[in-house]
Specification:
With 48 residues, the protein is mostly helical. The chain has one domain. The protein has three helices and no strands.
Length: 48
């Protein structure tokens, strides 16, 4: 993933985290830390 971000390419992050967040929502599980980590990675990818 880091190589993708450094090269300005999309990483597999979106698909992986999207699935986890959706599954967590289905069972009522709070994944706030996971969402925050995702936001930080997305922000970093915009800065590279």
């Amino acid at each position: 993933m880091m190589r993708d971000l450094e090269a300005g390419r999309r990483s597999e992050y979106g698909g992986l985290t999207g699935a986890v967040v959706r599954m967590a929502a289905e069972i009522g599980l709070d994944v706030a830390v996971f969402k925050k980590a995702g936001a930080m990675i997305r922000e970093r990818s915009l800065l590279l």
